[in-house]
Amino acid sequence: MWFRQRHGLQRFLQFPNKRQYHTPKPLLEDLTQRGFIQDVSRRDLLEQAIESRRQTVYVGVDPTARSLHIGHLIPLLCLLHFQLRGHGIVPLIGGATGRVGDPSGRLVERQLAEKEQIEANVVSLTQSIQQFFRNALSYATTRLTLPQDATTAEPRIVSNLEWHESFNLLDFLQQVGVHARVNTMLNRDSVRSRLSSQQGLSFTEFTYQLLQAYDFYHLHKHFGCTIQIGGSDQWGNIVAGLELIGKKDVNNNDLEQNPVNAFGITTPLLTTSTGEKFGKSAGNAVWLDSNLTSVFDFYQYFLKVTDADVPKYLHLFTLMSSEEIAEVLAVHDSAPEKRVAQHRLAAEVTEMVHTKSGVKQATVMTNLLFGSQYKDLKAEEVISAFNEDPRLVKTTIQAILTTPIAKLAAKHGLVGSNSAARNLVASRGLYLNGIAIQDAQRCASEDDLIDSGVLIIRAGKDKMMVLAATE
Known about the structure:
This protein is α/β, with parallel strands linked by helices. It has helices at about 10, 25-35, 45-50, 75-85, 115-145, 160-165, 170-175, 180-185, 190-195, 205, 210-220, 235-250, 295-305, 310-315, 320-335, 340-370, 380-385, 395-400, 405-410, 420-425; strands spanning about 20, 40, 55-60, 90-95, 145, 160, 225-230, 265, 280, 285, 390-395, 430, 435, 455-460, 465-470. The strands form four sheets. A six-stranded mixed sheet has the order 2-8-7-3-4-6, with helices on both faces. The chain has a five-stranded mixed sheet with strand order 11-15-14-12-13, sandwiched between helices. Strands 1-5 form a two-stranded parallel sheet.
């Protein structure tokens, strides 16, 4: 294989030639083996429908924040796999349902958000989803030779406020409420768990399942949508939609006897091997928006994945085949300390979300922060990687060459004072381009400049700055 003929981490991380996306596996089987599937409705009929004709699939996103985070990757990548097999996809933002709050998976009632905040989040999320699919489709075309029926156009993103905003209460009760049975609604897991809690369940939350059920019906009727995908806590809401479609379309309560062309899929709640909820880091989401989570920190999140989790994440968050993943893991297992699988995972996911330029930026910063071999770096790449980062300091070439490195470190805030810098030099803790400085009066020379343009000064293990020479 390609990487057995090459040696070293950097060469190993070069991506292979494109492969055919079509595999002997049916799509639902492939998604199951990758770890995307927890529950499906009428699996045999669903698999037959997927393989025999084009389906339209939707996933809902709550506008509780202005950006996607990596917890959204599971359902969105599920949509991407459907799209790459030629199916239609509809990312739906809950511009209306976000005002109500979904009780699913929550022990207490969600605090209702301000209307203006939800509207702003819908606009921002629309852009975030558009950018995700734009970048993900570009990533896919560099990895795969897609089948002719693949749909690579950016999907249309809709908000359910489009149809709920003009839907008055009386009409809703006549068209939706009349088909709902309270005893069935009470048996939903999301409702039962809250009814037994101390806080209970508000009427607003109780009706949420009907709003989402109508979303599925509306998309089924007007968009030809046949499949809804949601997290594992959405199963009750998805079933409510299937029941509403069945009752309104065929006037028959028994879906088994008179099935409709509509199905539900749930994805598992993904946790790490230590039980931590995926998408959270010390209680904070890892955002896909680089203004909220830097490309470097995004890359580092996946680089720090444990050995126990990396096989699962390679299957879920990349388009690598099972065979590729097995070979990467074999190389990884032969030298776990090199974290080959984590480097590949981080590079793949970062390119999918932030493009190749994002990978370049993140790897340059990683090499500078955690590596010691700087001779092959390009000054332009270093400056670009640290653009708008406070650790990048631009100063004149004269100041760099005539001011002792210890004083430069103090002047630009890498250390607290000149005396602290001298103490670091004495303890061999101040480094120039990865080499400890032995003389507090040492100045840099032109030969020290990396690619004639930058110096890397490090204080201890974790603090560093990049000095970029200007005229």
